[in-house]
Amino acid sequence: MEITKELGREIARHNSVLVTGATTGSPFWAAIGAKEEGGIVIGLSPAYNEFDHIKTYNLPVDYHDLIVYTGFGYSGRNLLLTRAADAVIITCGRMGTLNEFTIAFEDNKPIGVLTGTGGIADEIKNIVDKARRGEGKIVYDSDPKILVEKVLELVKKEKVIEI
Question: What is the distance between the alpha carbons of residues 159 and 163, in angstroms, rounded to a whole number?
Answer without folding.
Answer: 13
